[in-house]
Amino acid sequence: MFPVYNGAMTLRESLQSIAGQDFGDFQAIILNNCSTDETLQVAQRFCEEDARFSVISNETHLSAEANFAKAVKLGAEAANYFCLRAADDLSSRDFLGKLVEALDADDAKLLAACSTKSFNAQGFKLKKPAANIFNFQESYAKGRVPRNLTFPSEWIYGMFRSRSVDILMARWYELGNPWGFASYVLSEFVVRDLVAYVPGPTLDFREGSGSEQRYGAKGFRDKLSQRLTYTLGCYRLVDKLPPTGLLTKAKFFRMCWNDARRKTRYKLLWIF
């Protein structure tokens, strides 16, 4: 699924990155959100060249959150597995194949994800998950909770099993804007051990889209409100974890608060 608004400059390259995958048994849908540039024309030309690609145009312009949510629902209805792709991102050639293999191998996993190559003008850095986020429920039951739930937020562009749609949509709009929502939504997949991590392939993510400037909170009150929403929303996941004592729950709350600070990047005071 390619939810896109005014992505004409980079869309073709992103489409070609999927067309050139070593796994070819897929359907790709471009969800055009009433773009005002040449996005639709670029999409239509590519669909003429490759029958696996098709385009749907929204009748009215949707918010970024709503357009991505529509893409999730369409993807879940269309196939057993689905993934999202931003119009300016790429991936290694084995991305689809390796992630499909991971879900085929373990029916209990709802998301297959890999490392992220995060590019900017200075080059790229490789973002991997921390080792202590795996087997989270077992560690939690023993009273071990990491200080942070460290994983690439770009896992939102991983491969989802279609039955994951209810988990995705349950928390999709709670933060109120697209900034930080990917990590927030994905936290349930991580703490419930629903992620199959696949070393090797990469999602190639371009930084500098300006989403923080467009969607991030500006004032102290809004930043505090979003941090609290993030913290308390993630903390509610204790109800889906093994029963444990108050100390472990306190550690879990600390982790959620720390994550809210790191994932939103809102610093309320110089050490807070």
Question: Main traits of this protein?
Answer:
272 residues; alpha/beta; three-stranded parallel sheet; 10 helices; 9 strands; 41% helix; 18% strand; Glycosyltransf_2; Glyco_trans_2-like
Question: What does this 3D model show about the protein?
Answer:
This is Glycosyl transferase family 2. The protein has helices at 8-19, 39-49, 64-78, 95-105, 136-141, 165-170, 181-191, 211-215, 220-235, 246-264; strands spanning 2-4, 28-32, 53-57, 81-83, 90-91, 111-120, 123-127, 159-161, 195-206. The protein is of the alpha/beta class. The chain folds into two domains: 1-87; 88-271, no CATH class. Helix 1 (8-19) packs parallel to helix 2 (39-49) and helix 9 packs across helix 10 (246-264). The radius of gyration is 19 Å and the shape is globular. It starts with a strand and ends in an 8-residue tail after the last helix.
